[in-house]
Structures are given as C-alpha cells and as structure tokens.
Amino acid sequence: MKRLFAWGKARTDGALMARLQALPAAAELSQQPLSQQQWVVLDVESTGLNLQRDLLLSIGAVAIEGNSIGLADGFTCTLNRDQQHLGDSVLLHGISPSELAAGLTPAEALLAFMEYLGERPLLAFHAPFDQQMLARALKEEFNYKLRHPFLDLADLAPMLCPQAGLSKGGLDDWMSFFGLANLQRHNAYADALATAELALILFSRARRQGLDSAYALSDALARWKRRQQQSAW
Q1: Closest Cα to residue 114, out of 22, 226, 11?
Q2: For residues 214 and 3, what is the distance between their CA atoms, to the nearest angstrom?
Q3: Are the C-beta atoms of 60 and 74 separated by less than 8 Å?
Q4: What is 2-6+33-155+169-232's CATH superfamily?
Q5: Residue-by-residue pLDDT tens, the chain, 233 positions
Q6: Nearest-angstrom CA–CA distance, 54 and 132
Q7: Radius of gyration of the chain (CA)
Q8: How far is CA 26 from the centre of its chain?
Q9: Which one-letter DSSP state was computed for residue 36?
Q10: What single-letter DSSP state applies at residue 9?
Q11: Distance CA 74, CA 3 (A)
Q12: What is the signed CA dihedral for 157, 160, 162, 163, rounded to 10 degrees?
C-alpha cells in the first residue's frame, strides 16, 4: 500500500505542474464485463460537511480489478493543515497532531492521488460529497477540472437490493445487512476498503440482474433515480 506522507525534498512548482500535465485523461465508462473492469474506491475525510468551506484532511483509496481488491496497492495520505483552524473534526477522524504536521501539502497530496487514480473511474458511498470535495480542492490548487466518472454505492445498493428496505441507508447499515465488518470507521482508508467490499457484493448482484458493465450500471442507475424522483412528486 502506498503510504504518502511528507517527502524529504520539496518539489518545485514547475515539477508539480509537469506532473499535473502528465496525468492521463479520464476514461469513459466501459461496456466490458465487470470481471475485467478496474475501479478506484475513494473515501475522503474533511473538517466538516460544508462543500464550499471545509477542507480535506485525508484521502484513502483502494483499487478493484475484476472480482478482487488490490490490498497491496492501496493509497492513503494525510494533508498538512493548520491545526488552529480544524476544530473537533480531527478527533472524530482519529488524526493525531503529529500526523497532520507530517502530512503532505495539499498540492502534493492531490497530485499523488491523481497519479494513483490514473484514468480509472471512481466508486464511493455518498459519492457526491467525495466528488465535490476532491473537485473543489483540485480546482483551487491547480485550476484542474476533475472529469472522472463516479458511481454512488448509496444509490446502487438500494437499486440492486430493494428487499433490504434501506433506501436511505448509510454505509454502516449496508455493512450490517451483508454481515461485513469495519473496525475503524471515519478513517479514509478503512472506509474505502469497506466500500470496496460492499461494491464486490453489489457487482455480483448486478450480474445476476443482467447488468454486467460499468456503462450498464450507470445507465440503469440514471433510470432508477429518475423513477425515484417521479414517484416522490
């Protein structure tokens, strides 16, 4: 697993920009079978839930390739933040002052994650939050527009498993429903790993329902969400 904390030698702005320009373009959602699909499962921890004001504290991610999770190829980093402005959120996430002090600068952390991500699509639970926090941070640091597609397991799970009765269920609810354990909630890497385990179960359900590609899942999810909105009117 790639653990990225402060590097011994600071990189110049020019070097950072060269790395930014070398990032591959995001791939569109594929129609290849899910057994061949690569994903990155993302979780971020932040100073709060305000998408316009709060800051990223840590990024955790794991890779899915087909039917397996790449445990040896995960990503985790803590961002160096001014502790005077963080409040109580750090206590919730269990991030120590020494971890914050040793963390990467936001620019280094974001670039390292984007290099890890490559062209792969993303999965997250309550994905709009992770997507918007990451997109805003990239925009502020580099004027970079995040174009990678996201699928939200908070929507995918009730679409594929309506019998669970968890249309508004959180990650803990779905973990409990499927008998999965997460012993370190509110830790970005642990939550990403838990989300990846949930994703593999949902992909198995999807294949049984004739949804065997990222594109098919995205299309079915869009139609399901439209029906949900119409039924709420």
Answers
A1: 22
A2: 29
A3: yes
A4: Ribonuclease H-like superfamily/Ribonuclease H (3.30.420.10)
A5: 554 433 333 445 788 889 999 999 999 999 999 999 999 999 999 988 889 998 999 999 999 999 999 988 899 999 998 765 565 555 555 677 778 778 999 999 999 999 999 999 999 999 999 999 999 999 999 999 999 999 999 999 999 999 999 999 999 999 999 999 877 777 899 999 999 999 999 999 999 999 999 999 999 999 999 998 888 77
A6: 11
A7: 18
A8: 15
A9: G
A10: S
A11: 8
A12: -100
What length does the chain have?
233
Cβ atoms of 104 and 76 within 8 Å: the answer is no
Q: Which residues pair with 43 in a beta bridge?
A: 60
Coil, strand or helix at 174: helix
Report residue 89 as tokens. Answer: 């959120």
